[in-house]
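New to this. Look over this protein:
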Amino acid sequence: MTDFAASTAPADVVRRQYLASAAGDLEALRATLAPDVEWTEMAGFPLAGTYRTPDGVTSGVMEKLGEDWDDWTAHDDTYVVDGENVVVLARYTATHKATGKPVDVRVAHHFVVRGGHIVRFEQFTDTALVRDAMTT
């Protein structure tokens, strides 16, 4: 039996990323990312764009979400794996700090995992629901 913490199986690497994110453990999250990772937040999302490097992803995405939202969490529930491709159906929940409005929105994430690290990520979500929670 493979040790989950050391497994290079694509779904295990992705699951460790979700667990690290939910725990606020940015060091563990960076450990799941390849040095040349490309992390794309969807157009229309507050942090839209492509971030590179593990530090770029955590400082440009995770830390910013923490600044603007209370308890931002991606709840992963369904994994579809095809070789190095992992698609995860999930739900974002959080409360916007400035407006006090909650968000609860479905999301799909597409990861590409090679050599035990996430090399590419792309987000798909209803960005209008996220923006609505950010406006008074």
Q: What stands out?
A: The beta strands are 33-41, 49-52, 69-82, 85-96, 102-114, 117-125. The mean pLDDT is 96.
